[in-house]
Amino acid sequence: CTGHPGVRWYTRHTVHHHRSCCLCVSGMNAAVRATVRVGLYTGAKVYFVHEGYQGLVDGGENIRPATWESVSMMLQLGGTVIGSARCKDFRTREGRMKAAQNLVKLGITNLCVIGGDGSLTGANQFRTEWSGLLVDLVRAGKITEEEAKKSSHLNIVGMVGSIDNDFCGTDMTIGTDSALHRIIEVVDAITTTAQSHQRTFILEVMGRHCGYLALVTALACGADWVFIPEMPPDDGWEDHLCRRLTNQRARGSRLNVIIVAEGAMSREGKPITSDQIKKLVTDRLGFDTRTTVLGHVQRGGTPSAFDRILGSRMGVEAVMALMEATPDTPACVVSLSGNQAVRLPLMECVQVVRRNCSVVFMICRSFENNWNTYKLLAHINPPDVKSNINVAIMNIGAPCAGMNAAVRAAVRMGIIQGHTMLAVHDGFDGLAQGQIEPITWTTVSGWTGKGGSVLGTKRTLPAKMLEEISQNIAKFNIHALVIIGGFEAYVGGLELVQAREKYEEMCIPMVVIPATVSNNVPGSDFSIGADTALNTITSTCDRIKQSAAGTKRRVFIVETMGGYCGYLATMAGLAAGADAAYIFEEKFNIKDLEVNVGHLLEKMKTTVKRGLILRNENSNANYTTDFIFNLYSEEGKGIFDCRKNVLGHMQQGGTPTPFDRNFGTKMGAKSVLWLTEKLKECYRHGRIFANTPDSACVLGMRKRALTFQPLAELKEDTDFEHRIPKTQWWLKIRPIMKILAKYNIKLDTSEHADMEHVIKKRSPLGK
């Protein structure tokens, strides 16, 4: 070991093997790529096992050494390039003996398995039997005593690949987010034709035992009804469904959307099919009804940015888990919870699979939250008794995808609580000028899928308009305020809080919901809109890399948004496989630029003759995008040529991704529930009076929890000059991007993931 105290530096040569076995899903290749490259980085010899367990049993050419170049240009590919197959032979002891013999002959003692619960159960059984298999192989003369001694134990680590997200112990399995992207693309396309023709559409998605895809799709598109296996509908659901659809049409809706999981069933255990629902709606209501069964479309396509980052981070953690494993270490599964890497006992996860209602609600709190949020926002049952509370909602700062989903959820949750909801147009300007009007349940119909800001948004801060704002708060009798936006929303909220000393009208509860592509709001690890921008950058980089691969010897310099925050540049670099990403938070000089140029010059000598460099727009005042372009062009003359691309405002547009729709919906709903409780606390002598620090908060995601943090308390962790938090979690994963780009740097594993237990896990968000 070398390096500083508390930093592990792996140099031991460990033979490591990587394989994949399950129905292929998008994002697997990112995990394969990361496992291979980090394995090579640690000094291990890495093997591909083609065609899953069948390749392990058959051996021969199915088990081949993996190289750095062999996993190039894989990130944007769906499925798995090393193949996947179900294997009957591996279910027998004879088959597992053949597999063990093949591994022993190659000196492989570490196995990385990407698959579902069946694949991981098989891997654990293989490990449990390992000693006995070696004894039988020696007795049969298939291996020598010396070979058996060298391979005396087998280490296993698993990564979960499944679009159903049906594996306990992880917020998201590899492939789930990409499947949601495919589904939402179809829903958006169907919505336009359904509105034109006033149709009812029934969409059947995968999920034989787990309704995660169906539930999140319903939440993300505002579906009228969802059928999932975990929650069979109440008796008489047919009447209830028809009544719901009729009410929606009566309120002016031109379409109805019903989402059905393929495993949906009634309380009697009888299947509920899309054809059955179509017949019900057509016969009883006479609505023009169409059915779409997505099928295997959900498994294919380009992986989303989230799945690429998830696969990459899990691949790195899997190698580290294998490097640290001992004969006494139980086989584990690596996953991410919130933004934290976790390791969980493999069999503990397998034994508690999410396949019945009680398990779902006991283990996966995010599923329960999704279900409860959907039920509240989809059902049109406003209370008869009004609260006499007026809650105003506004958007502040630059527009971003997902803002409208947050507004919709906040409006509907407020109406459910009995409040009168007020829309403030054009930010603080609108609040000062009285651009305030009631907003209703039907007004926000269809807003989840709309990009930008329907309410209108401006960057203006309230400091110079406090008098006018206080007058309008009194005039419109506003009792609470929801501020949805970026850094300006946080600073504007602070200015309103500071004005409480002078203006009593400002003494009302306030909540700031982070919504910005820059992901630079203090108090939250994620902002609404950042995922959509990240996917836009990643898909553009895919096209750029494809162009560079065709022309050969070409390097692209791409400028991203983010202000002084390097989140987009860093995460897009990891998702797109960039060679470098320049950001403000990590200072760089001319020597660093020279190293990067030298790295690309060496890369051009390999079979991978292309380069991708990302630069955050404000990373350095002197080393501009033009400067870096000119430097690379000059230094690479005769070896490679350069092109530059400034992505600009295309990063703020587009329809929201499933994550931003879901995240915005949950944040909007939770903010109003919090305000409702806070209003009860602040009600004194017949009026609302809130002047404590905890009455004005940022609602953000911190590691694994959605938390409310007082605006004033976050000042210490804020760099106001550069509009960024002083501590940012994603900086710790930047070394992963560099290692995967083949830079010889040290990976700090002092904060490696410890083994946890499934039964203690409580995640608030999922994805």
Write up what this structure looks like.
Mean pLDDT is 88; it is low at 1-23, 354-363 and 760-767. Helices cover 39% and strands 17% of the residues. The protein has 23 helices and 27 strands. It is α/β, with parallel strands linked by helices and 767 residues long. Helix 14 links the parallel strand 12 and strand 13 (420-424). It has 4 domains: 28-172 and 303-358, Rossmann fold; 177-296, Phosphofructokinase domain (Rossmann fold); 385-528 and 656-725, Rossmann fold; 531-652, Phosphofructokinase domain (Rossmann fold, 3-Layer(aba) Sandwich), CATH 3.40.50.460. The chain is globular, with a radius of gyration of 27 Å. Helix 7 packs across helix 22 (658-681).
Descriptive tags:
Rossmann fold, 4 domains, eight-stranded mixed beta sheet, disordered N terminus, alpha/beta, seven-stranded mixed beta sheet, disordered C terminus, 27 strands, 767 residues, globular
Q: SSE layout and pairings?
A:
Elements: E1 15-20, H1 28-41, E2 45-49, H2 52-58, E3 63-65, H3 93-106, E4 110-115, H4 117-139, H5 145-150, E5 155-160, H6 176-197, E6 200-205, H7 212-221, E7 225-227, H8 237-250, E8 256-261, H9 274-285, E9 289-293, H10 305-324, E10 332-337, E11 340-345, H11 346-351, H12 357-363, H13 365-378, E12 390-396, H14 403-416, E13 420-424, H15 427-433, E14 436-438, E15 457-458, H16 466-475, E16 480-485, H17 487-498, E17 510-514, H18 530-551, E18 554-560, H19 567-576, E19 580-582, H20 590-603, E20 610-616, H21 625-635, E21 641-646, H22 658-681, E22 683-684, E23 687-688, E24 696-702, E25 705-710, E26 718-719, E27 724-725, H23 734-740
Parallel strand pairs: 1-2, 1-4, 4-5, 5-10, 6-8, 6-9, 7-8, 12-13, 12-15, 12-16, 16-17, 17-24, 18-20, 18-21, 19-20
Antiparallel strand pairs: 2-3, 10-11, 13-14, 22-23, 24-25, 26-27
Helix pairs in contact: 1-10, 2-3, 3-4, 6-7, 7-13, 7-22, 10-19, 14-22, 15-16, 18-19, 19-23
